[in-house]
Amino acid sequence: MKVLVTGGAGFIGSNFVLHLLERDPEIEILNFDALTYAGNLENLRAVESDSRHRFVKGDICDHHAVAEALDESIDAVVHFAAESHVDRSVEGPGIFLRTNVVGTQVLLERLRQLGHLDRQRFVMVSTDEVYGSLGPSGAFTETTPLGPNSPYSASKASADLVCRAYHHTFGLDVVTTRCSNNYGPFQFPEKLIPLMIANALEEKSLPVYGDGRNVRDWLHVRDHCTAIDTVMRHGRSGEIYNIGGNSERENIEVVRFILDHLEKSHELINYVTDRPGHDRRYAIDASKIRDELGWEPQIDFERGMGETIDWYLAHADWLDQVRSGAYRGYYEQMYGNRGAHRG
Ligand code: NAD
Ligand code: DAU
After folding, report:
1. Does residue 110 belong to any structural domain of this protein?
2. Burial of 115 (0-12, 13-18, 19+ CB in 10 A)
3. Which end of the chain has less neighbouring CB within 10 Å, N or C?
4. 166 is catalytic
């Protein structure tokens, strides 16, 4: 099987590339990534000399580059490439619409031109954030109406609808996954868990938004990779599959877990001004993928978190390399003028 992975140098994409290479001796991977601030080829150092993996630097919005990479030899496109950070989408929505909506349409259009509708599958890696925010109870199902609240989630929901249209109108073999929050190795330290680990290690304050009681459903990235692999091979064309970890936690619980694991003081916690439009709670009903495709998460949250924190400890060089350079400027921009308040 030959797979075009877009965004395969990012957090989940690189974990997915490593997962496929480990699991499938016959796999061929073409990894297509623009190497934005979030793309890091260090993530793939272990497979640098593996002939089953080839990297191509390219932008999914560039028709010519996409046409060159996506030819008739490709059996499946697994589409991770995106702008993925909600806070960045609040600072500058434009790039989110360009990459996440237009980039997705460029890929779909290329598949339409190729015309091999029954043998070139497109896996749209979407997010639970397209559903919006939940109250204290209930969970998102695949039929929950879309209600995105941030420019990021609006761009992902728009891309999902474009996928739906290409399936219904042109007959493309599209399957969409909507997953909850991931954690694990190689996550860029702008996201909650790696940011808090990195700050705790340096004994810098840990910026918790609002009252810290927003809830996310955490899933280890390896579990997400097995779910996407399952959907790529066995998912029903045109369907949507929710993916979740059954691990709802308040942000403050996650932050305290990290501090306790690292034996650092809770005094480092700093409640700061809330994220604008901050979704209160996400929870996933993943019974469809379990019942239809037999997928269930395997990694318990406490075990997965312990391993993840230890991974960042053991890969201080990776963290240093990512935390230097562009990331520092970004950090100042995001947190420099975020005043402290009492949570
Ligand atoms: P990430 O930001 O770590 O990686 C994104 C990758 O896409 C980077 O390698 C980047 O270089 C690449 N990219 C960005 N713009 C590009 C372009 N124009 N052309 C080609 N490549 C480009 O993101 P992630 O956290 O790994 O998320 C991957 C996908 O999974 C995204 O589509 C995201 O919406 C989705 N998702 C993420 C989570 C999560 O918790 N992180 C949960 C559910 C779904
Ligand atoms: O639900 C899936 C989504 O999860 C993905 O689609 C996104 O790509 C991914 O970024 C993630 O979005 P979140 O906004 O939930 O993740 P983030 O790590 O940015 O924040 C998690 C929670 O922690 C959220 O409630 C905001 C809060 N937070 C985050 C940061 C960065 C803080 O309290 N302080 C922080 O510094």
Report:
1. yes
2. exposed
3. N
4. no
Domain count, the chain: 1
Name the 3-class secondary structure at 318: helix
Per-residue pLDDT for the chain (343 aa), expressed as one digit of tens each? Answer: 999 999 999 999 999 999 999 999 999 999 999 999 999 999 999 998 999 999 999 999 999 999 999 999 999 999 999 999 999 999 999 999 999 999 999 999 999 999 998 899 999 999 999 999 999 999 999 999 999 999 999 999 999 999 999 999 999 999 999 999 999 999 999 999 999 999 999 999 999 999 999 999 999 999 999 999 999 999 999 999 999 999 999 999 999 999 999 999 999 999 999 999 999 999 999 999 999 999 999 999 999 999 999 999 999 989 998 988 554 455 667 667 666 654 4
Task: Decide if 219 contacts 11 (C-beta within 8 A).
Answer: no
Decide if 216 contacts 180 (C-beta within 8 A).
yes
Instruction: Give me the residues paired with residue 178 across strands.
Output: 126, 242
Closest-lying ligand to the alpha carbon of 322?
A: 1
pTM score of the predicted model: 0.96
For residue 50, indicate whether it is catalytic. no
Alpha-carbon Rg of the chain, whole angstroms? 19
Report which residue type is found at 340.
A
Specify whether 62 is catalytic. Answer: no
CA nearest ligand 1 atom 19, residue: 59
Backbone angles phi, psi at 108, to 5 degrees: -65, -40
For residue 19, being part of any structural domain is answered with: yes
Backbone angles phi, psi at 21, to 5 degrees: -65, -35
Half-sphere exposure at residue 250, Cβ-oriented, CA atoms within 13 angstroms = 10
Q: Is residue 265 part of a domain?
A: no
- The verdict on the CB of residue 245 being under 6 Å from ligand 1 is no
CATH number of the domain that residue 157 is part of: 3.40.50.720
Domain extent at residue 241:
2-183+220-246+281-298+328-342
Tell me if 126 is assigned to some domain: yes
Q: Which residue has the tokens 């297509």?
A: 32
